[in-house]
Structure formats: structure tokens, C-alpha cells
Amino acid sequence: MQSRHIAPPLPLLLFHGLLSSPQEFGLIAHSLRSRGLAYEGVSVPGYTLANDPVSPQWRRWRDAACAVVDARGAPYQPVILGGLCMGGVLAAAAALERKQRIAGLVLISPTFSYDGWGLSPIRHLRRLAYWTGFDRFYSVAERQPFGVKSPKIRKWVMQEMAQRAQSAVGPARLPLRALREGERMMAEVRARLGELDCPILVIHAREDEITRLTSVQALVAALPQQDKELAVLENSYHMVTIDNDRHEVAALLERFVKRVSAGLDAPTTVMGQPLANPPQPALDLGASPTFHAT
């Protein structure tokens, strides 16, 4: 009897959030590798731990991300890209430029709008700074709850920020001009996301304080791709890769990477129930992630 050949998992490249570092994936790195995934939390020149408050440019970030993709494997070897927060937007920007190599895309806590419950009530004033050019003189401080629901992990994040102005959730302050460039990239990628023809997995927490779940549901519902999934996490805030649901994130990544690597279609049922088409508000399944796909 012939044994069935199982395709090895494709490389998974994960991009971190704005001006942060691969430390954002540190608490799931071992889990991903123990599951047999060829995972790499990549550093992007000019984006990773960058300190250029005057002249950041999102197209340079995108081009540097494309160079990272080009340097991984043979010129036509397929890879799966993903990212957390703005890193997901950057991964999508790179995917749009390297469509022939991208086998799948994962958007983790994607930020295409700033409308979450944890943002400053005066956040809209940033647009005045953009318009006047004063954005080069200001920065935005990270604030409670730092994207973390777990009190223990949040305490660790606060200690890191106090000691070195940098933590697993990113820098203690973000230059406003870098934030402006991030928003420009968000607008460009959102307008073109439908051009991708690869499977897409979106992972988002119901209680995300940066971007509301309803905004992400609307984004996913509007995508024309047939192979798309939305997984909703029930016990985390924005930084899901270090928060309470990090093990679920690792499991979701494993399932997606192995399915895409094997060339399988998106699942039509979860827990014996048909997946919604188009995506509908998630069912409350306690601590387990809920899914929507078409």
C-alpha cells in the first residue's frame, strides 16, 4: 500500500508591529517550531526598532520587506506571510508586490482603522499635526492596557518599558510622523487587498482596544477572495501573540500553514457547524476561537 506524501510546511515569515521587534512573537516562537513550522520573525531594515522621527517612508518599509522575502529561499519558492498589527499591513503590502511567491497571508490583529475602546479621546488631533507638519515634533506614548489583558504579562511589559523604553509590545513612544506613514500604508493596502489571490486568515480579539472587531468583520466580508477565514479570540486584547490566547494563535497558524502547504481548500465546517457565508458576528464559544470563512 502506498503511503500518502505529506507536503512539508511552507516557510512562515511574520512581521512585527510599527517600529517594534520580533520579540512580539517570542512567546509563541517555541510553540510554532515544536509544531513543525518553518517560522521566522523577521527584522526589516528601517522599520525594526527604527528611530527616524523626521523622515520615515512607508514605501521604503515595503521595499525592505520585499527584499526580506526575496532573500528567503529560491526566487520562485512559495512562502506564507503574516504580521501583527501594522506588521500585518506591511506583510500585505509586500504580498501585493510579490504575488507570484505568496501562498497565503495571515493578518493578526490587523489595524486598518483606529476606532478601539482603548484609544485616547484626543487621537483625532493627530490629523491637525499631519496637516501642519508639526508631526515631526511629537510622539505618542503607549498607554494602559498596552494591548494586554493578562495582568501578569502586562506587569512584565510595564517593567520592560520603564527599564529600556522598549518591550514585547513595542516602543514606549511612537513618533507621530511614523504613525502618519503607517496610516498612509493602511489606506493603500486596504484599497488593494482584494487584488490578492491567495488564502487569507484573519485573527482578531473580540476585545481588541485598538481596532473594533466590527471593523475587521466588515473588512473581511468585503474581500472578494473565496478562501478567507476570520478567527475571533475571546480572552485577549490587541497583542494576542503574548496575551492569554497566544496558544490558540499558534494553533491557528499551524492549521492554516499546513492546510495551505498541502493545497487544501478552506474548511467548510468548524465543530460540526457550517461556516458563515458571508462572515457574520461570531458565536460566543467561551475561550475557543470562533471562525467565519467563505
Task: Describe the model.
This protein has 294 residues and is α/β, with parallel strands linked by helices. It has one domain (12-140, 174-293): Alpha/Beta hydrolase fold, catalytic domain (Rossmann fold, 3-Layer(aba) Sandwich), CATH 3.40.50.1820. The chain has helices at 26-34, 58-71, 86-97, 126-132, 151-164, 176-192, 213-222, 246-261; strands at residues 12-15, 39-42, 79-84, 102-108, 139-141, 166-167, 170-171, 173-175, 200-205, 228-233, 269-270, 273-274, 290-293. A 7-stranded mixed β-sheet has the order 2-1-3-4-9-10-13, with helices on both faces. A two-stranded antiparallel ribbon has the order 5-8. Helix 2 crosses helix 3 and helix 3 (86-97) crosses helix 6. The longest helix has 17 residues, at 176-192. It is globular, with a radius of gyration of 18 Å. The model is unreliable at 268-288 and 290-294 (pLDDT under 50).
The CATH superfamily appears as Alpha/Beta hydrolase fold, catalytic domain
Distance between termini?
A: 36 Å
Strand order of the largest sheet: 2-1-3-4-9-10-13
What is the number of helical segments per DSSP (H or I, 4+ residues)? 8
Radius of gyration: 18 Å
CATH architecture: 3-Layer(aba) Sandwich
Helix content percent band: 25-40%
The gross shape turns out to be globular
Largest sheet: 7 strands, mixed
Write the layout of secondary structure elements.
Layout: E1 12-15, H1 26-34, E2 39-42, H2 58-71, E3 79-84, H3 86-97, E4 102-108, H4 126-132, E5 139-141, H5 151-164, E6 166-167, E7 170-171, E8 173-175, H6 176-192, E9 200-205, H7 213-222, E10 228-233, H8 246-261, E11 269-270, E12 273-274, E13 290-293
Parallel strand pairs: 1-2, 1-3, 3-4, 4-9, 9-10
Antiparallel strand pairs: 5-8, 6-7, 10-13, 11-12
Helix pairs in contact: 1-8, 2-3, 3-6
